[in-house]
Amino acid sequence: MQKLMTVSATSRGGRDGRVALDNGGAAFAMSLPKEMGGSGDGMNPEQLFAMGWASCFGQAVLALGKKHDVDGSRARVTVEVSLSKDDISFMLGVKITVSVPGADRSKVEALAEAAHEICPYSRATRNNIDVTIAVA
C-alpha cells in the first residue's frame, strides 16, 4: 500500500479548547454544543467529522458517477452525525443523504451504495457505528 499523505492536528482543552492543523492550515475554537450544556460558540468534533465525511463521500460519488451513468458533479452529499449516550459510553450515528437533481433514483441509489464501499470514512467506520444511506 502506498501512503499518499499524512495530516496532523493538535488539540488543547478538549471540547472547550482549540484544535489546529500542525502545518498552520486551519484552527478552530471548540465548544460543547448547547444541547450538551455548552455555549455552542465554537466547533465540535461531530461537526468536523460531518464535514470531512461529506467531502470524502462526495469525492467517491464523483469518482464513480460515470460508471453509474450519473453526473457526479451535480451531486449533493449531506452527512448528519449524531452523538448518543448509554449507561456505559458515547456513540456516533450517521445518516448520509445523496441527491442528484434530475438523475434516475435507482442509479443514484446504486451510486450511493458503491460510494459507501470505497469512501475511506465509510470503510474506517464500517461495523463500528450505525450508518444509514439515503437518496433524496
Automatic annotation (TrEMBL):
InterPro entries: KH_dom-like_a/b, OHR, OsmC/Ohr_fam, OsmC/Ohrsf. PANTHER family: ORGANIC HYDROPEROXIDE RESISTANCE PROTEIN-LIKE (PTHR33797). Belongs to the OsmC/Ohr family. This is Organic hydroperoxide resistance protein. It comes from Halodurantibacterium flavum.
